Amino acid sequence: MLTAIIVLVSCSKTDDTSVTLYSDAAITGFTLGTLSRTVDGTTTSYYGSSYAFTIDQITRSVYNNDSLPVGTDATAILCTISTLNNGIPMLIDLDGETMIYHSSYDAVDFTTPREYRIYASDGSGYTTYNIKVNIHKEDGNTFVWKLMTDAPWPTADDLPAGIKQVLGKSTVEQYGLSTGNKLMALHKDGETWQTEWQQDLADDAENADMLPTEDASLVSYPMNYSDSTDYVLLAGKSSANGTRSMVWRKIVDYSKNAPTAQWSLIERDNKDKYNLPLLSGLTLIRYDESVLAFGGDYKTIYQSRDNGITWKTSKLFSMPENFDYSTTGVTVIKDDENYIWLYCNGTGQVWRGRLNRLGWKK
C-alpha cells in the first residue's frame, strides 16, 4: 500500500507542481467491464457497464439492485473503482489476510462478497467496503409449472338470482350473464343487477347481437396512463357469429363526475390472422402486462399484448409437459404472487406455474 502511494506521488511530481495528499477514503464509483455468460453450453459476452451499482456510504456497501443475467461467470470479473481524492483501493484476498492492489485489468472472483479497503492518499487511514455482485440463479423468461399435491380446491360462491355466470369485476362494477343471456352489471354501491344494454350500449346498437352469450370471460385491469380508470375486456361466443370469439371493451373512468362508460366491439374481419378462436370454457387473465386466454382443448395458450385486438401464441407460455388433456374443464386463477393455478375437473390435477422474473423481488 505504501509503495502504491509513493508511485502515485512520484508519477505526479514535477519541478513546478506540488502534490496534495488527502485523508479522505471513499468509493465514488463502481463499474463492471465486459462479462462472460454461458447458457446451454454457449458462451457469449456483454457489457457489464449497463448495470448500475448502488454505493451506500452509510453501511459502506456496494451492490447492484438489478441482478446480472443467469449464467454470468462470477469467478473472473473486471471492474473499475473510482475513489475520492485518489484513495488507494486494496482488495482483501480470499484467505482473509493478504491485501492486493486493485487494478481494472485484473479479474476478481465475485462468487462471494469481497472486502475492499480504500486507503487515504496521505496514508492516515482507510475505509472498509463490502462489494457484492448479484447474479440471477434462474432465467427470467422461463415459465415453470409444478404439479401440486393436496392443494385445496377453490369453492364457488352461490350465483345471484337471475345470473347464470358471474364474469368478473372492475373497481366499481361486477359483471355477469343473466339466464336470459343479457349482459348485466352490479355497481359497488347498488343492490340490483342492471342490464348493461339499457345503460351503456346505445352507441353500438348495431352490434348488440355480437355480445357474448356462451363461453364468456371478462378481465379488468387499471390503465397505466390514466388515473382512476379501468380497462374491461369481455370475450366469448355470440349468437350472431360462430366463427370466432367476439371481443368487447369498456373503459371505466370512476373519477368524480366522469362520463358513463360504454361498451364497444373490437371490430375485426373473420379472416384476420390473429383473431381469438372460439374456446369452450374460455378464461381470460391479466398476466405480464398482457392478457392470456385459456380454453378449448387447452393445448394452446393465446396472448394479447394490445388489449384484446390481436391474439397470438408465445414461446413464454405453454401448458405443463405432463398435463392430462382428458380433463373435462379447467378453472384458471391468478393469485397475488403471480402464480397461475390450473384446477382440472375429472382428472383432479392441480398445476401451479409462474414466469420466473415475476417472482423476483424488486
Topology record:
Blueprint: H1 2-12, E1 27-32, E2 34-39, E3 42-47, E4 54-56, E5 61-63, E6 79-83, E7 88-92, E8 99-101, E9 114-119, E10 126-132, E11 143-148, E12 163-169, E13 173-178, E14 183-187, E15 194-195, H2 196-200, E16 212-222, E17 229-238, E18 246-253, E19 263-265, E20 283-287, E21 290-294, E22 302-304, E23 329-334, E24 340-345, E25 350-355
Short overview:
By secondary structure, the chain is mainly beta. The chain is built from 2 helices and 25 strands. The model is unreliable at 198-202 (pLDDT under 50).
Protein architecture, described:
- By secondary structure, this protein is mainly beta.
- The protein has helices spanning 2-12, 196-200; strands at residues 27-32, 34-39, 42-47, 54-56, 61-63, 79-83, 88-92, 99-101, 114-119, 126-132, 143-148, 163-169, 173-178, 183-187, 194-195, 212-222, 229-238, 246-253, 263-265, 283-287, 290-294, 302-304, 329-334, 340-345, 350-355.
- The strands form seven sheets. The chain has a six-stranded mixed β-sheet with strand order 4-5-10-9-7-8, with no helix packed on it. Strands 11-25-24-23 form a four-stranded antiparallel β-sheet, with no helix packed on it.
- Residues 198-202 have low confidence and may be disordered.
Enumerate how many helices there are, as a single number: 2
Main sheet makeup: 6 strands, mixed
Strand content: 35-45%
Shape call: elongated
Q: What is the string of SSEs from the N terminus onward?
A: HEEEEEEEEEEEEEEEHEEEEEEEEEE
Low-confidence stretches: 198-202
* Rg (CA only): 30 Å
N-to-C span: 39 Å
Number of strands: 25
Structural class: mainly beta
Widest sheet: strand ordering: 4-5-10-9-7-8
The percentage helix is under 10%
Mean pLDDT across the residues is 91
